[in-house]
Amino acid sequence: MVCWQMKGDTKGKLKSLIKGKISLDVPMAKYTSLGVGGRADALAFPKDEEDIRVILQFAKERTLPYFILGRGTNVIIRDGGFRGIVISLYHGFRRVKIISRGDEEVLVYSEAGVNLKHLIRFTREKGLTGLEAFIGIPGTLGGALAMNAGAFGPEMKDVVKSVTVMEEMGAMVVKQRKELRFSYRNLVLPKGSIILRAILGVREAKQEEIVAKVKSFQRLRVQSQPWNMQTAGSIFKNPEGTPAGQLIDELGFKGHRIGGARISEKHGNFIVNEGDATAADVLSLMAFVRDTVYEKRGIRLTPEVHIIGEG
Ligand SMILES: Cc1cc2nc3c(=O)[nH]c(=O)nc-3n(C[C@H](O)[C@H](O)[C@H](O)COP(=O)(O)OP(=O)(O)OC[C@H]3O[C@@H](n4cnc5c(N)ncnc54)[C@H](O)[C@@H]3O)c2cc1C
Predict the structure, then answer these.
(1) CA of 73 to the centre of ligand 1 (A)
(2) Do 254 and 299 have their domain in common?
């Protein structure tokens, strides 16, 4: 059910205001790796910064909420969908280039809609090392920065030099690494900020070494995660001490299911959509795990996935 606070012509007006594509009443399950969730009133693919500014202004004038979507690989959209505008930088913000080569460091400019996979291929082809551990994280650079994504040790905070964001009111701000408040799977930015691009610091290395590193990280991932299934990555953050996946495994929950959602047999902290799961199934399974882990082990698990929309 679409319940725009704007009606008829006004919807068309937003379409006419920007150069990028806008679709209305969009099933968001198609845009998330878990494949669940209801419809968004609008999904916008701004072409440039001016388009984003226009969308933000439009949303502000009508007090419409907006949400920034990367590749949707760490979000759960509830079954009632999202009443507002989902903004994706996936079409318009995909440039990558080297901006300087020093003896110690090479600086790479990348826009937020670039897939990490593409970024890693780019750096590998240019003989640059530093991003290999992120192979297999299926999101965009924007999502990876917003989540301070990491794997096998390195996190995004270790490679980023600066980030350019557009704030809610349309102002552009460049934040240097020392001003960026990264923590475990989080980057604190003013509410409503949109990451547009970043500069990353990497180093020169031999192609064979880079390829070998990529392959070994890929192998580790394939062994330990259900990488080829519909999931949202790690569901819970790792608490101090025992990793969430291990806790869930120790309690014997692997394979436990509610509706079409199942705890992966391969990794206890992944929930798999068996094909017909709803967001409610996934959220019920999460609540079951959270409550039982607390009851049995006294540990409070908090979600790593971002949960949005209406129940
Ligand atoms: C199979 C699988 C394996 C995974 N493995 C890992 C792993 O090893 N390590 C890890 O850390 N994660 C992992 N993830 C989770 C996920 O891929 C990462 O968190 C990824 O960085 C999210 O990127 P995204 O583009 O999909 O962001 P989304 O899921 O679309 O968004 C995540 C959050 O970032 C915000 N966001 C996205 N883009 C922007 C932007 N431009 N500006 C401001 N905010 C933005 C969104 O609003 C949302 O709050 C995995 C996921 C899957 C499905």
Answers:
(1) 5
(2) yes
Percent of all residues in the chain with a pLDDT value above 70, rounded to a whole number: 96
**Which of 88, 121, 143 delimits the end of a domain?**
88
Count of domains forming the chain:
3
Q: Is the C-beta atom of 143 inside 6 A of ligand 1?
A: yes
Report the separation in Å between the CA atom of 233 and the middle of ligand 1, taken as the mean of its atom positions: 8
Q: Look up 162 and say whether it is catalytic.
A: no
47, part of any domain:
yes
> What is the average per-residue pLDDT within 57-72?
95
Of 110, 162, 234, 264, which is the active-site residue? 234
Q: What is the pLDDT of residue 15?
A: 85
Active site residue 185: yes
Does 79 share its domain with 176?
no
Question: Is 236 part of a structural domain of the chain?
Answer: no
Q: Are 146 and 195 in contact (CB under 8 A)?
A: yes
Domain range for 164 is: 96-224
State the pLDDT confidence band at 268, using cuts at 50, 70 and 90: very high
Cβ of residue 140 lying under 6 Å from some atom of ligand 1: yes
Q: What is the DSSP letter of 239?
A: P
What pLDDT score does 81 carry?
97
Give the span between the Cα atoms of 51 and 27, in whole angstroms. 23
Domain match, 35 and 108 both: no
List the residue whose alpha carbon is closest to atom 34 of ligand 1: 143
- Report which of 208, 72, 207, 79 is spatially closest to residue 140, judged by C-alpha positions: 72
Q: How far apart are CA 254 and CA 236, in angstroms?
A: 15
Pick the last residue of a domain from 54, 88, 122: 88
| Other CB atoms within 10 Å distance of the CB of residue 245 | 22
